[in-house]
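User: I'm writing a short report section on ligand binding and want a predicted complex to refer to. Could you take this sequence and flavin mononucleotide and write out the structure as tokens? A short remark afterwards would be nice.
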Amino acid sequence: MRNTADWRQPGGPMFYEPDKNDHGLPHAPFKSCIVPRPIAWVSTLSKAGIVNLAPFSQCNILGWDPPYIMFSANTHHDGRRKDSVINAEETGEFVFNMATWALREAVVLTSHIMEPGIDEMAAAGLTPEPSRLVKPPRVKETPISFECRHHQTLVLPCDTPGTATSMVVGRVIGVHIADEVISPTGKIDILKVRPLARMGYLDYTSVTDIFELRPEGTSDRTVIGMSGGKAGVKRAAE
Ligand SMILES: Cc1cc2nc3c(=O)[nH]c(=O)nc-3n(C[C@H](O)[C@H](O)[C@H](O)COP(=O)(O)O)c2cc1C
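Assistant: Sure. The structure tokens for the complex follow:
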């Protein structure tokens, strides 16, 4: 058994080129360098109207005027695209559901490849809640979800022949936040939500503490601006 010091590269600190994958470690470290990653738990409908639900930790928001959100999916080993990508493109809609600590078992369960004809929300024992502006249902059990309209898919080539990475971008047209997670000060009570996040390997974390960093002299007006503007006022009109 090698001890940890054995992993050091001769001649200096770790440097490797992903094209060569020459890190010498038992597990490629790349995905462990961008952590923690939020998890988009994406619900979609197939053209036949079957509910699909799957987690994607390559996910984030893009701007807020208007808000966009993206998730990224690789293809299956045989080159088939994932159902979430196909459905979002074919129907033009998807829902982002927040993965939380309380729902962690169901999140992982829905990542198992299931045949396209199976309702994955029902199979995971979750409750479909009708959305207001799009057809795919939301996961009732999660406190935060976004209704999204498919905007664009960016297809990135992969080195493995016949495979690709699809970055699916959706415009967020509806935001649901459960009353129980809005604090008396009007902020989202993140400790109550306890979002689940992906680390490298099979490791996860969840948000169990928060702190504020407010540079001296930062006014509440600045904080409102940084948060995306005043309630009921579109930025252009401010
Ligand atoms: C926590 C978690 C995060 C995941 N993140 C991704 C991801 O970012 N990209 C991806 O292609 N697959 C990811 N997967 C695997 C997919 O969820 C899995 O391939 C799923 O079966 C896709 O379902 P679909 O074909 O119904 O879209 C993740 C799995 C888990 C458990």
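A remark for your report: DSSP finds five helices and twelve strands in the chain. Residues 100 and 177 are 13 Å apart (CA to CA).
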